[in-house]
Amino acid sequence: MSGFSDAALEKKLAELNNSQQSIQTLSLWLIHHRKHHASIVKIWLKEFTKAKDSRKLTFIYLVNDVIQNSRKKGPEFRDQFGPILGPALKLMGQAVNDENTQKRLERILNIWGDRNMFDSKQISEFRKSLELCFKRRFDNGEPPVKMSRRDRGETLENVKENREQEDPDKNKKERRKSECNEVIQFDKEGKKEVHITLSPKLPANDAPEPEELIKALQTLENAASSDGIVRKKITELPSEVSDVSLLSKISDQTQAEALTCKVNEAVELLNDYNGRLLKEMEDRKSVTKMLHEFTAAQKELLIQAEERLQEYKEKLCKVYQVREELRSHVSSLPDLSQLPDVSAVPLPSAGDLFSLR
């Protein structure tokens, strides 16, 4: 994957179009370079402001894809985009007088709210920014315009892809069924090619990649509960740091100061270890969830594979039946070698055919 730079991002945003492939490709690239999230959001806002009105919705789809697909890796993009989405949506509401675009934006806001991508206060602010601009334009005598797909530069494929960009997790079961028989058509050197996908499709949920799951499991190998060195230090702490009854044995200030120093060291050690244990608990909960999602995804893939296997077994049986019927039909045909030789019989002439009798 190419390296990150401001110029590279500006070029990619300039080349961005409203196809699902274009949006997802750039989204994956941004998530890969999420450590540059501050620069990414700053450049996105600059290019969004400069973009033509017809392209602004595509920029919103990109943000939607990035936020939804990066939420398991960290909140960086959500936190960075949150403060600027209000002004961005307000700018879009001022520039776009299109009923279809308004409905799509409202749908994205509903998805963000349903999935807790942003808190309810932020969603309300986003919605107010849009509603205020659309209402103001309506009050000024500019009712929403219903634009045709051609006016928006869309094709039927774009419409389907845009719906998937708005809600990539919707109707998972229906999408799994359709993807099992997916036919991909594209032009290559002027020729249309048709490719049928035979392999099971990954479920359209948040199931982790195997590499991501392996990395999470490896992290637990160095968890606090397996840190024998620190646990040994804790067991070797002097009894006076935890036994209040021993305080009566302190006879002077020197002993008190020495005990205070030991207690402070013990508190620091225990606080650090407890913090690590707390983090380990959260990590284990996360890994448990990942394992559950991964197992569910694999079970779904297994179901797809079994369905596909059964489907092609049935097709194979039909092919065998056709083959047997064809063999039976061929065997029932007359043997041409047993027919009488008619080559010696002369064919009638044209005059014989048309002669009157």
Structural summary, described in words:
By secondary structure, the chain is mostly helical. Among the domains are: 6-136, Serine Threonine Protein Phosphatase 5, Tetratricopeptide repeat, CATH 1.25.40; 210-299. Helix content is 66%, strand content 3%. The chain has 13 helices and 2 strands; from the N terminus they run H-H-H-H-H-H-H-H-H-E-E-H-H-H-H. A two-stranded antiparallel sheet has the order 1-2. A hairpin with a 2-residue loop joins strand 1 and strand 2. The chain starts with 5 loop residues before the first helix and ends with a helix. InterPro entries: CID_dom (IPR006569), ENTH_VHS (IPR008942), RPRD1A/B_C (IPR032337). It comes from Daphnia magna. It holds the Pfam family CREPT. This is Regulation of nuclear pre-mRNA domain-containing protein 1B.
Strands in their spatial order, largest beta sheet: 1-2
The total of helices stands at: 13
Span between termini: 91 Å
Helix content: 55-70%
SSE run: HHHHHHHHHEEHHHH
Contiguous low-pLDDT stretches (5 residues minimum) are 142-157, 170-199
- Briefly note the structural class of the backbone: mainly alpha
CATH topology assignment of the domain at 6-136: Serine Threonine Protein Phosphatase 5, Tetratricopeptide repeat
The geometry reads as: elongated
GO molecular function: RNA polymerase II complex binding
Protein name: Regulation of nuclear pre-mRNA domain-containing protein 1B
